[in-house]
Amino acid sequence: MGSATTAAEPADAEVDVLLSGMVFLDIVFTDLPEAPCPGHEIWAGGMGSSPGGIANLAMAAARLDLRTALVATFSDDGYGSWCRDILGRQERIDLSRCRTIPHWHSPVTVSMAYAGDRAMVTHGHEAPVSAAELMGTPPRTRAVIAALDDEAWWEPCRDAGALVFTHVGWDPSGVWDRGLLDRLAGCHAFTPNEVEAMAYTRADTASAAASQLSELVPLVVVTRGHEGAVAIDQTTGEQADVPALRVPAIDPTGAGDVFAAALVFGTLDGWPLAERLRFAALASALAVQQFGGGLAAPGWGDIADWWTRTRNRSGEGDAASVELARDYGFLADLLGAHEGRSVRRADATIAQLADLRSDQRRPPRRRT
Predict the structure, then answer these.
(1) Counting runs of H as helices and runs of E as strands, what totals does the chain give?
(2) Domain coverage including residue 315
(3) What is the pTM of this model?
């Protein structure tokens, strides 16, 4: 695998990725036969529960062996205690800068997936403590993932050499104020979806939007759902347009977070742009085939399983698998570096944990 870019390396970095945001309890119903309506009860074909919100992104990063630290508040209620236990004990996420708040209840989201889309109902209150107050002096981190329209808690990290990967949410006002893009100054990467990118730039296509945005930030990745992603990396002069993998999707919750975490992984390792996008597309494709947001994020065991199946089918002459084996050949060396880390996705119910034996629980790799 060739090296295409050199990522920032803060001296003696304590973590690879630093995140901050609100942790939700996500309850996900999938395979609904129709939309819920007043006065009727319908049965869902599947259901899962997991930590959600910023936890989706934290879990996706940690599953890839990125040393991940989270800055967030938790409630002292049952939901908050369970989410904190899952994130800390199971997912090995650094929660040392988190705080438990008495008498503040956990935010909850119920997601209902049907007809290829989803509807969500959420209840919660603003966190009583800001990210900056929780964090204090930030850890030395190689990267930060943050929302462009959120509190700029990450600026000290950027000033210390961390790469800032940022995204933006839907604008319900429909204004799509281009002035928001001024906040990209000093950021390394911007990862909007094509609707957001075209709305902010007033461009007619995702590629044209990416071209405009590349004038504002070194790395632009515009995601296009089932059409894949287009990207421009000004630091290397690369452009790439990579298709999505065709898979039976049952729950899109957290797929964007999984994509972002995989993109950060490849960028920190200095991969060529097309390989970064392919890896992110694979990770998100594996995620949407399971229930439950963060708990559906693939680990190295899941990626190894997919690669083994793909190579076997390629050897049997399956045309689609032959093409995939060619495009994803870089996985062979990558998986060898993670041999022994067989963590796989958990069943997304409140009672199940990830499939990782106690003798395999070791600290994430430290880069040298």
Answers:
(1) 11, 14
(2) 300-343
(3) 0.87
